[in-house]
User: Fold this.
Amino acid sequence: MVVWLLQHVLPFLHQVETHTSGTSRIYTTLRIASASLTSFLLAVLLGPLAIAWLKSRFREKVASKSTELDRLHAGKNETPTMGGMFIVLAAVFSLAIWGHLGNHFVQLSLFVMISYAMLGACDDWTKLSRHRHGLSARSKFVIQWLLGLMAGASLWKHFASQPGGHDLIFPIGSLAVPLGMGFIVWAGLVLVSSSNAVNLTDGLDGLAGGCSLFAGGAMIALCYLAGHKTLAEYLAIPYVPRAGEMSVVIGALIGAMLGFLWYNCHPAAVFMGDTGSLPTGAILGLSALVCRQELLFLLVAAVFVAETLSVIIQIGSYRLRGVRPLRCSPLHNHFVLTGHHEVKVVSRFWICSALSAIAALASLKFL
Assistant:
């Protein structure tokens, strides 16, 4: 909406554009900040109403496979969940105001955010209303892949006219591997992996939300740099026209997440559920695909990667050797069961997430 006004109302826009840089020239940095602030205020204002509504309908049942973990988290029983609803609503509304809705990446982001939120809501609703563990793992996985492949196909078509648009780019040595049609599958894998990684991390008050803030901050910078021709050339990173608009998307999501953390910090008044974790992870993965930094994203999202690997290692070790290397997976549960207070675990994971995001950005001039 604001972009449309700037394009059609301000008579001096052309003169302003001649003095700005990048491919999204309509006050990109201002709109990133404005989108963040708007979604934060919306989330904070919507929070009490949303929590009251969720409390009357959707309350979390603590029921893991660890009786000891259930005992430690017994106080969280009956906490309202599906708080991801007001994260997504705040982000979408803010994006409608401050985003360039004619931009392909913004349109695709809205599709990914809403579709993954709907999948997460369906999973949460099934879990709470039918006294099951949600959708079957196979059904959920298949739908995630279908949505991921649809998004991948859209990106593949959009990047077709861009030189090297379908390449897998390595941060070290500027090595590029052409993927061709395989780019669609690769994009689907990134979205499915990132959405599940955030979902696995969402187990302690504020953990997934806080780590998402640091990862999102790094992705804002990477997308902005990728969409800025001069800076992209200076840093020797892929230049992606109009990728800077993805920074506005992440800015809106970060603001909404900050507003959600206002109520999700320990002791949490609401949980995000799959309704929030799945779209958050998917949007972070999509931003990596847009700026063509999927491999560097592994460093940006190091905490999410570690959480996912801990589950894979735990299951693989038990099936192959009959030994569980961790007290409980994902990794944050292991630390809780070994006597570390929840707040301390969350704080240290936040620190690790911040350091990994800083390291990823610092590597741009060294790799």
